[in-house]
Write a structure and sequence with these properties.
The complex is a heterodimer. Chain A is an alpha+beta fold. Chain A is built from 6 helices and 8 strands. In chain A, the strands form 2 sheets. Chain A has a 4-stranded antiparallel β-sheet with strand order 5-4-7-8, with helices on one face. A 3-stranded antiparallel β-sheet of chain A has the order 2-1-3, with no helix packed on it. The longest helix of chain A has 20 residues. Chain A is extended. The termini of chain A are far apart. In chain A, 39% of the residues are buried. The N terminus of chain A is likely disordered. By secondary structure, chain B is mainly α. Chain B contains 10 helices and 1 strand. In chain B, helix 2 crosses helix 3. Chain B is globular and about 55 Å long. The chains are: A alpha+beta, B mainly alpha. The interface between A and B is large, with 83 and 78 residues. Strand 6 of chain A pairs antiparallel with strand 1 of chain B, so a sheet runs across the interface.
Chain lengths: 241, 194
């Protein structure tokens, strides 16, 4: 079983697929196109992609594909979920069917949230409340107001990548995973839980939010920070009934 | 009301690198289908060896992408992200077929003897995947099929380069042991330097 790169450092099936998906830009695209022209090995990858596309379109044309996706989105999860979440998933499925947007509902499952503790390393989290008059940071110990529009900002302390997850009595949801950036992260959200925690992991390498969420769901906690990885958490709570 | 809801069109959305806009969302699935479904379907077809199961799995992968849209949009390569989800999903589906790996290895070896054909490298890999641990499986697919470099695998999985190397070596050791067991007397090449 030969290592793939023994055939040529220029070859990469993933690069060919990214080219065909329109993901490459400018110099990278030009280089990939030039390589493809003269490389039978990469041409075979393109040929396979085209065969897969033909087989897909024949056996699962877009209309059937979209209907199947919508049906699955509307299907309740095996894990216990609140009825409202189920209805929200149905709403998303309906949106696909009619081609309009609806709020995206994070998929959640029940999980304890033990052993998630601060290992900051200079990183920090701030929760902003948006209202008609502007935005302000949530104060220390302050409860999250009902129906508040929230945004999260991460101070990555020089790290290049970040992931932010929300852990509460209903499970774990990924709020963001990608390059660390100054200021509030994309997307506002509303939280209707009772008690929860925001968890941010920053690192010089991309953070695998899926693996992190799995660990939190299993209540394994976060692995001890290694290298320049750092973890920051922020408690959330809501007052009143 | 859902506990956690992304609010498109929030006042600060203009700062977002990829703001969510209603008029774009309707075409999102069509765009995903055109750009990425062939590769996802190809991955599912290769791993599951069943057209209908592959079609089901392809839809399931995109359901997962839609349910994790912020994470998907933040991925540096949507292709790599989706193929990883597809691989995970199909490997789960394949678990029940673990016991049949010996028969398949012998069948592939038989092809070689009867027809003088070399077993397809990816086909052999697919059979041997069932014997490896989860992380070894994923990294073997990324390395041998997707042809990512070890550094790219480390970046995609969040693992260190030595860990990636260790998993790949572990997979190769498992594969060599399995081939030696299924095909006694087979001459195996020396372990490669990874």
């Amino acid at each position: 079983m030969n290592a793939p790169h023994a055939a040529g450092r220029e070859c990469s099936a993933t690069r060919v697929r990214r080219l065909l998906a329109g993901e490459l830009v400018e110099a990278e695209r030009s280089a990939a196109e030039a390589h493809l022209l003269g490389c039978p090995r990469c041409q075979r990858v393109r040929h396979e992609w085209e065969e897969d596309r033909r087989a897909l379109e024949a056996g699962l044309p877009f209309e059937r594909f979209a209907a199947g996706v919508a049906e699955r989105l509307a299907r309740p999860d095996l894990a216990p979920r609140r009825p409202v979440q189920r209805w929200a998933a149905i709403a998303l499925a309906a949106a696909i069917a009619v081609g309009v947007a609806v709020p995206l509902v994070a998929r959640l499952s029940r999980a304890p949230m033990d052993e998630v503790r601060l290992k900051g390393g200079g990183a920090s989290l701030t929760l902003y409340l948006q209202d008609g008059g502007g935005a302000r940071a949530l104060g220390p110990g302050e409860a999250v107001p009902a129906a508040a529009r929230l945004r999260v900002a991460v101070e990555p302390a020089g790290r290049r990548f970040a992931a932010v997850l929300l852990v509460d009595e209903d499970g774990v949801a990924t709020l963001y995973a990608g390059p660390a950036q100054p200021g509030p992260l994309p997307g506002a959200f509303e939280w209707t839980g009772r008690r929860g925690e925001l968890v941010a992991v920053v690192d010089d390498a991309p953070v695998d939010a899926g693996a992190l969420a799995d660990r939190l769901r299993r209540a394994d906690g976060i692995e001890a920070p290694r290298g320049r990885r750092a973890v920051a958490t922020l408690e959330l709570w809501r007052s009143g009934p | 009301m859902a506990r956690f809801t992304v609010i498109p069109g929030g006042r600060a959305e203009a700062e977002s690198p990829r703001p969510s806009r209603p008029e774009q969302e309707g075409g999102l699935l069509a765009e995903l289908y055109a750009r990425h479904a062939p590769a996802v379907f190809g991955r599912c077809r290769w791993l599951l060896r069943d057209e209908e199961a592959a079609r089901d799995a392809t839809q399931e992968v995109f359901v997962r992408a839609l349910r994790a849209l912020p994470e998907f949009r933040a991925a540096s390569s949507p292709t790599t992200w989706l193929l990883r989800i597809a691989t995970h999903h199909c490997l789960n589906e394949m678990r029940s077929a673990r016991a049949r790996w010996r028969e398949e290895v012998v069948r592939l070896a038989g092809l070689r003897q009867d027809d003088g054909l070399e077993p397809d490298r990816r086909e052999l890999l697919r059979v041997l995947l069932r014997l490896a641990g989860r992380e070894e499986q994923e990294m073997a697919v990324m390395y041998f099929v997707d042809e990512l470099t070890q550094a790219e695998i480390a970046a995609a999985t969040g693992r260190s380069l030595p860990t990636v190397r260790k998993r790949l070596r572990g997979f190769l050791a498992t594969a060599r042991a399995a081939l030696a067991e299924a095909l006694p007397g087979i001459a195996l090449p020396e372990e490669e330097e990874l």
